[in-house]
Design a protein that fits this description.
Oligomer: heterodimer
Mean pLDDT of chain B: 89
Strand content of chain A: 25-35%
Bound molecules: siroheme, flavin-adenine dinucleotide, iron/sulfur cluster, FE2/S2 (inorganic) cluster
Distance between the termini of chain A: 19 Å
Strand order of the largest sheet of chain B: 3-2-1-7-19
Low-confidence stretches of chain B: 855-866
Radius of gyration of chain B: 33 Å
Helix content of chain A: under 10%
Mean pLDDT of chain A: 89
Helix content of chain B: 25-40%
Strand order of the largest sheet of chain A: 3-4-5-9
CATH superfamily of the largest domain in chain B: FAD/NAD(P)-binding domain
Largest interface: A-B, 61 and 72 residues
Low-confidence stretches of chain A: none
Number of strands of chain A: 10
CATH class of the largest domain in chain B: Alpha Beta
């Protein structure tokens, strides 16, 4: 395990605990990383071009694979709200609400986790 | 609360109750009156229709139907977890379990249904469940842990959903249905048979025509199995009853309101019960047509009717006289739809049936003698539901036989939404007609599906109308003469070709700068999108040496722009693993090379396959294994095959004059030379090539973007060929070329294509689209009509000189290697979703871990916390 120095990124788990997941420097603007949560689920953490950190579920509801962290970010066409496009079948997910922008079915949305810097 | 204020009390906060509140709010009634809601469940209304998605990770909060702040904003008093226990109509008072009393002026019952549990002995055993609420599914999930087999009693819509959920939880699952077929209400015999085959194909066991006789239990009172009416026994640890629902009319009965013989609170066409101050809506109501509706759309209609009646009294023109029970569902991943007179009950009607048991598709249309479409059943392929349902009751504009044929077999006259009349209901959930949708586009200026959804509500419930909705919006836009925006995407109003020229002329080396200075006003300063990022990354990469940008696709900002395949220099597969394709120029490989690939594949347990591109693909690598695999390959002299990039893929070859008795040139050598020259070249789409040693064309060069065929005196160059879905034979660009002439022409051709093609436009499509076609391209690259050939050649020379293997460079750069980890906080924990099972002595993805709920396989102790 690496020791993190400088600003770190934390996300709030389902149990309401703040979990330190990585250093801010580990994130590339416009891309994501996958995080293993204490309950065994996965989250995807992104840094957008404005420097905001977002976290959603990593599981792509369309394919079941844990890949959303590997998608590309965008914001245009969603009223400026950032989204990630699934790398598998390209559906877009709003990073602030978890809703799928290409399918209104709530079953196709992903969980959103609160994030903070520490 | 002053006694003068009118009070509306709503009993039941389910799907229909919530919709009723929204309708009240929309009519401004929530401000003027006191609204009290008694909610039995421990949480406010949620989306019961999508209850099953709980098992695939949707949380109860996500299922909630109560918009944040809705109750507060509208002054609604919501009593969660406090059901009504009595209604005193004389005193007009409702009492709740907690003992509170509420005086009402108007009372609305929206108590829904309860699941019917057949009176079989042992039904109270531990491990018996129903399937209706979030508490139910939570209890099932908890009990199913560490248990092996489950039985679902009932093979209807809900039973199959429950069965799918048990299957997803990893239980061996049985379905017991009393009727002779599955989903007896919705589908006919043929449809039931198709559904059964598909369900069985997923590993479920189906018992039809039998009933459950007794639930067997052990001494501890836990379920151990179920005895069936045919004398057999199914061993099981868990039973889910899903044998239908019954209206919850107990409060109404006790209060002396009229109820139907078989249950349901009787209401009139304005949804009033036998007491005009008491309404009943949703699944608890027996509608004026004598039906109890177990679907959400009729319930919503009743909610509107009741709200309208309360708001306007006698003036209300809205009535509920019955509803369409058409449904389209996806059960266990199978599309099932039924509409209209699905069972062909009308006098003298005829069936038109298409059935393909191999693919599990069954489609039936019921047609009246005069050709009117009366109804139908679609199983396995319900794509046409959105069009067929609105056509019900009319004579379709195409012959019924054509309407049931699968897309590929149907004649191109296939009917589109333009065939529908304006009063056809497109969205059944919200009763939105084609006319309303057209008006939203033509008069209200809605130009996209999301905009139409906001202003009409169409498509916002079950979503089964979205496909037709999209087609209608486009048709209507075209009819209004709306100019089609030729911009690349919502971020850029320029075409790809224009962006290429801007990048080149102004030497723009960063996407950020391009977006902020040349993007559309609204997109500047934003995050861009997934369309333009890879397109711009590709332009910058093709021009990198000429404009002085970083050479490696993962350098600096470029890394953030690449599509995921380029980002990991490998091809993403359906389960999140990657495939690895080393370059094998011309398809020529030494025995040592084969051995290295074999050893690497064996050591990492990868699936191997010879590709259609004359090389070897290794599948099933986890992201964290990629650098380890490539370290071995690079050491043995292999380099990236760019199977992941919009770049040169392969140059295939035939054995040519060296071995073949017909060969006239050394096609293998030429193929290798070309592959090594153009490797790594980023382009608008992938590039493929082949070289054949004679006119017999064993390398299939005429199917390639640039293909070379040997002649007695040199080479013929063909361009614009394509395999794939729309094959195209390549056109001859020039004949009898020397080696040097051939290479020079290809240099120019490729660079001209890269400069002028659209994003994701193969050479075949580009050649057809570009003004002047082949003749123009010939003029430019053979006769240099634009005087740009020196320039094109120089660009290619820079590319060739600057080529470096992406994988070798990546392995040398710790910064680039950092991305190849499974989890940022647990780099050594393999992704639990990437699992494999055996097939034909190799591995294949284990798809069951993907369909089931997310796998919490191992817990993480302390990692990630500094
Ligand atoms: C592996 C391979 C199939 C195989 O097992 O043989 C394959 C696999 C894929 N092909 Fe292919 N194609 C493969 C040879 C072909 C061929 C045959 C050939 O190249 O001679 C063709 C027809 C020739 C052609 O392209 O014109 C072919 C026509 C396509 C197309 C249709 C292209 C078109 O213009 O219509 C696609 C889709 C696309 O690119 O949009 C495609 C897309 C794909 C993708 C990339 C789909 C995807 O996005 O996941 C597949 C992933 C490859 C991977 O994960 O490694 N593949 N594909 C072959 C790899 C060749 C190689 O060594 O690189
Ligand atoms: C798994 C599943 C899948 C379904 N799929 C579909 C589908 O694909 N399409 C479709 O159209 N329909 C579907 N349905 C049916 C749909 O959910 C119902 O038609 C709809 O929920 C009916 O709404 P309602 O408000 O009438 O009843 P409900 O949503 O059941 O709400 C009634 C509420 O009233 C409460 N209540 C009862 N008595 C009292 C009392 N005395 N005091 C206070 N509260 C009380 C209950 O606890 C309940 O919360 C599905 C149902 C299930 C269970
Ligand atoms: S294309 Fe001609 S040279 Fe090549 S293998 Fe076929 S027959 Fe032989
Ligand atoms: S038909 Fe259900 S949303 Fe339109």
């Amino acid at each position: 395990m690496t020791v993190l120095t400088g600003t770190t990124v934390q996300i709030e788990t389902a149990e309401g605990r703040w979990l330190t997941v990585c250093g801010l420097a580990d994130l590339t603007p416009g891309r994501g990383v996958a995080v293993l949560l204490p309950d065994g689920r996965q989250a995807a953490v992104f840094l957008d071009s404005a420097g905001r950190v977002h976290a959603i579920g990593n599981r792509d509801p369309f394919t079941g694979a844990g890949v959303l962290s590997r998608g590309l970010l965008g914001s245009t066409g969603n009223g400026g709200a950032p989204f990630v496009a699934s790398p598998l079948l390209k559906q877009r997910f709003d990073l602030t609400t978890g809703a799928c922008l290409d399918d209104p079915d709530p079953a196709m949305s992903v969980p959103v986790y609160a994030t903070r810097r520490a | 609360m002053s006694a003068a204020t009118e009070t509306i009390v709503l009993i039941g906060h389910g799907m229909v109750g919530q919709r009723f509140l929204e309708e009240l709010a929309e009519r401004g009634l929530t401000g003027a009156t006191r609204v009290v809601v008694l909610c039995e469940e421990p949480r406010p209304a949620y989306d019961r229709v999508h209850l099953t998605t709980y098992f695939t990770g949707t949380s109860p909060e996500e299922l909630s139907l109560l918009p944040e702040g809705f109750a507060e904003r509208n002054g609604i008093e919501l009593h969660v977890g406090d059901p009504a226990v009595a209604v005193d109509r004389a005193a007009r008072v409702v009492t709740s379990r907690s003992g509170a009393a509420f005086r009402y002026d108007t009372l609305v019952l929206a108590t829904g249904s309860y699941p019917f549990v057949p009176p079989v002995p042992g039904r109270d055993s531990e491990g018996c469940f129903v399937y209706r609420t979030i508490e139910d599914v939570r209890a099932i999930e908890a009990y199913a842990r560490n248990r092996g087999t489950g039985v679902v009693v009932g093979g209807g819509l809900l039973g199959l959903e429950a069965a799918g959920a048990l299957n997803g939880l990893g239980l061996a699952t049985h379905v017991v249905e009393f009727n002779p077929r599955l989903m007896a209400i919705q589908v006919d015999e043929g449809g039931g048979a198709a559904l059964r085959r598909t369900v069985e194909g997923m590993g479920l066991t189906v018992h039809t025509g039998v009933g459950g006789q007794e639930i067997l239990a052990n001494d501890a009172g836990e379920v151990t199995g179920m005895a069936l009416s045919d004398g057999s026994v199914v061993e099981a640890d868990l039973v889910v009853f899903s044998a239908g629902v019954r209206p919850r009319d107990e409060l109404a009965r006790a209060a002396g309101l009229a109820v139907g013989e078989r249950g349901g609170v009787a209401v009139d066409e304005r949804c009033r019960t036998s007491d005009p101050d008491v309404y009943a809506i949703g699944e608890c109501a027996l509608a004026a047509d004598g039906m109890v509706y177990g679907l959400v759309a009729p319930g919503y209609d009743m909610a509107v009717t009741a709200a309208e009646s309360i708001a306007r009294g006698r003036d209300s023109a809205t009535t509920f006289l019955g509803a369409d029970t058409s449904t389209k569902l996806k059960l266990l991943g199978v599309d099932v739809a039924s509409f209209g007179d699905a069972h062909g009950r009308a006098e003298g009607c005829l069936d038109v049936v298409y059935a393909d048991s191999r693919s599990g598709v069954y489609k039936k249309l019921v047609i009246a003698r005069d050709g009117t479409l009366l109804g139908g059943v679609l199983v396995g392929d319900a794509d046409s539901y959105g069009l067929l349902r609105p056509l019900t009751g009319s004579v379709p504009p195409a012959a019924p036989e054509q309407l049931v044929l699968p897309a590929g077999l149907a004649p191109p006259t296939a009917l589109g939404p333009s065939a529908l009349p304006d009063d056809a209901v497109i969205c059944n959930c919200h009763h939105v007609t084609k006319g309303v949708i057209r008006a939203a586009v033509a008069d209200q200026g809605a130009a996209t599906v999301p905009e139409v959804k906001t202003c009409t509500k169409a498509g916002t419930c079950c979503g089964s109308c979205l496909k037709v909705l999209g087609e209608l919006v486009n048709d209507e836009l075209a009819a209004c003469g709306v100019a089609v925006d030729t911009g690349l995407c919502p971020c850029f109003s320029h075409t790809r070709q224009e962006l290429y020229e801007i990048v080149r002329a102004l030497r723009v080396t960063s996407y950020r700068a391009l977006l902020d200075e040349h993007g559309r006003e609204a997109a500047r300063g934003g995050d861009g999108c997934d369309v333009c990022k890879p397109a711009v990354a590709s332009i910058i990469a093709s021009l990198a040496p000429a404009i002085g940008a970083g050479r490696h696709v993962l350098d600096g900002e470029q890394a953030a722009l690449q599509d995921t395949n380029d980002h990991f220099l490998a091809n993403l597969q359906r389960n999140g693993s990657y495939s690895v394709v080393p370059r094998v120029p011309g398809g020529e490989i030494t025995p040592e090379g084969l051995i290295v690939i074999g050893e690497v594949a064996r050591d990492f347990g990868l699936y191997t396959k010879i590709t259609g591109g004359q090389r070897i693909d290794m599948f099933g690598a986890r992201v964290d294994q990629l650098p380890l695999i490539w370290a071995r390959l690079v050491e043995a002299g292999f380099e990236s095959g760019h199977a992941y990039g919009k770049a040169l893929r392969t140059v295939k070859s035939c054995v040519g004059s060296t071995w073949c008795r017909y060969g006239v040139q050394d096609s293998v050598r030429m193929a290798i030379d070309l592959e090594l020259r153009y490797r790594g070249l980023r382009s608008p789409h992938k590039l493929k090539s082949a070289v054949s040693g004679c006119a017999r064309e064993c390398a299939e060069a005429m199917g390639k973007d640039f293909g070379v065929i040997a002649t007695a005196s040199g080479w013929n160059l063909y361009v614009g060929g394509n395999g794939g879905a729309t094959p195209r034979h390549a056109d001859l660009l020039a004949q009898d070329l020397s080696d040097a002439e051939l290479v020079r022409l290809i240099d120019r051709f490729l660079m001209f294509y890269i400069r002028t093609a659209d994003r994701l436009e193969r050479t075949s499509v580009w050649l057809e689209r570009i003004e002047g076609g082949l003749a123009h391209v010939q003029d430019v690259v053979v006769h240099d009509s634009l005087g740009i050939c020196d320039d094109l050649e120089a660009l290619m020379a820079a590319h060739v000189a600057g080529y470096r293997d992406e994988w070798a460079d990546t392995l040398d750069d710790p910064e680039k290697l950092r991305r190849f980890i499974s989890f940022v906080n647990a780099p050594d924990a393999p992704d639990p979703m990437v699992r494999f099972v055996a097939e034909r002595d190799q591995i294949k993805p284990d798809l069951t871990v993907l369909i089931g709920p997310e796998l919490p396989v191992r817990t993480l102790e302390g990692s990630g916390t500094p």
